[in-house]
Amino acid sequence: MNNADRGNRPLSPHLSIYRPQLTSITSILIRITGNALIVCVFLIVWWLFSAATSPQYFEVVDGIINSWFGTLILISSLWAVWYHLLGGLRHLIWDRAIGLDLKTAEYLGWAVILGSFLLTITTVVILW
């Protein structure tokens, strides 16, 4: 193995010429949204903890959550839930070796992106 000719092996594409595919970007976003949801869970636990602690502390935390910034975080977290769910369903489809051709994989990627936004808007409209 030490005598193998390493000069004829292809090299990995360099980042400056590599074009990320939709499937790779959406898979990376699944991991990012999963980690972002952990932050949302801590926010909800903080809100519940403040409700169990004292009315004054709850007013402070509830004011933060009901502010424009808290609302933005909660709506973003709602989008992350839908995106993570749809991305997970896409991976379950791929685990069954269905939709692995390029055209279907691209279609599923766009379906995850558009579906997550549509479901977020629908959920906000219904719950608002």
Structure overview:
The protein is an all-alpha fold and 128 residues long. The protein has one domain (21-127): Fumarate reductase/succinate dehydrogenase, transmembrane subunit (3 helical TM bundles of succinate and fumarate reductases). Helix content is 76%, strand content 0%. It is built from four helices and no strands. The N and C termini lie far apart (66 Å). 10% of the residues are buried. The model has no long low-confidence stretch (mean pLDDT 90).
Number of helical regions: 4
CATH architectural type: Up-down Bundle
CATH class: Mainly Alpha
- Biggest sheet record: none
Report the principal-axis shape. Answer: elongated
Helix content: over 70%
Task: Give the name of the CATH superfamily.
Answer: Fumarate reductase/succinate dehydrogenase, transmembrane subunit
Percent in strands? under 5%
Q: What is the total domain count?
A: 1
Global mean pLDDT: 90
Terminal Cα span = 66 Å
Number of strands: 0
Cα-atom radius of gyration? 21 Å
Return the CATH topology.
Answer: 3 helical TM bundles of succinate and fumarate reductases
Could you give the order of the helices and strands? HHHH
| Low-pLDDT segments | none
Structural class given helices, strands, pairing?
Answer: mainly alpha
